[in-house]
Amino acid sequence: MEPLEQLDELGPVLGGVVSTITPEQLDNSTPCAGYTVRGVLDHMIGGATAFAGAFRGANGNATPPDSGDKVADFGAALGDLAAAMHEPGALDRTIQSPFGEMAGADFARYVVLDGLVHGWDLSTATGQPYDPPEHLVVEVFEYARSTLDPLRDGDTFTAAADAPAGASTLEQLVAYTGRNPGGNR
What we know:
mainly alpha, globular, Four Helix Bundle (Hemerythrin (Met), subunit A)
């Protein structure tokens, strides 16, 4: 599946989780080490804003939306990122990513990986169901296995954790990114 197809499948699932986050849940801890729900949303809003500019070929620091409503800001930033990624030629660009220069199509796959895993973080922290399509999770996990090991810096990605016996593919993926799908945060 092409990265834009993956993005289009993930969008409604991720958006469904974020759209139901309440203000009372913003300070909940998440499985993403050191981040609350608010912190994950801020991270994703900031990243989406910067990445949208990169996919459009812009250099510089764009200002993330800041309406005071994290859920609305998330929708605006991620919607703009999706629009930027769908623009003609966006995936053909060389993107300056947090990990150095990457082909646009490869970085688009990273964006999907990041969104898929942070969606799990947010759903876990807020007690919501999270059920991305299994074929999407399988494809993203294959990408993660081919990409993440050189990015393990102890911060962005820590060492892979062990998934519990009988873990779902999604739980195996999040364990591979260094999270504990067994529930200990």
